[in-house]
């Protein structure tokens, strides 16, 4: 009786529905582990950035006697006057690609 129950339990675990549910559970578990890993990496990056900022003096107050940094806006190029112009390719009479 015990062996029959054990065999039936194993057979139920090997049905396609059960295998799909097990795979889905493992995928969710793996997703949670990846999220935890990404959060740990992000925390380490923030900590390291703070260490580097302190070592390089990036957190120090700015000297008011220094000139203000200027930012220049980049202007877009003028569009061509005729937007329907196409580049002309040189004619090559030896081009056999059109013969097929």
Describe the structure.
The structure is a single chain. It contains 2 helices and no strands. With 100 residues, it is an all-alpha fold. The chain has a domain of 55 residues. The model has no long low-confidence stretch (mean pLDDT 79).
Summarize this structure briefly.
With 100 residues, the protein is mostly helical. The protein is 53% helix and 0% strand.
Strand content: under 5%
Kindly report the oligomeric state of this protein.
single chain
Distance between the termini: 78 Å
- What is the β-strand count? 0
Task: Tell me the Rg in angstroms.
Answer: 34 Å
* Molecular shape: flat
* Unreliable stretches covering 5 or more consecutive residues: none
Organism: Streptomyces griseus subsp. griseus (strain JCM 4626 / CBS 651.72 / NBRC 13350 / KCC S-0626 / ISP 5235)
Protein name: Secreted protein
SSE arrangement:
Elements: H1 2-13, H2 16-56
Provide tags for this entry.
100 residues; mainly alpha; 0% strand; Secreted protein
């Amino acid at each position: 009786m015990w062996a029959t129950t054990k065999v039936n339990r194993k057979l139920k675990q090997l049905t396609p529905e059960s295998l799909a549910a097990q795979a889905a559970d493992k995928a969710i578990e793996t997703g949670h582990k990846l999220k935890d890993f990404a959060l740990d990496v992000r925390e380490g990056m923030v900590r390291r950035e703070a260490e580097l900022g302190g070592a390089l003096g990036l957190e120090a107050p700015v000297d008011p006697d220094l000139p203000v940094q200027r930012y220049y806006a980049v202007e877009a190029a003028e569009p061509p006057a005729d937007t329907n112009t196409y580049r002309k390719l040189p004619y090559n009479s030896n081009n056999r690609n059109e013969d097929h």
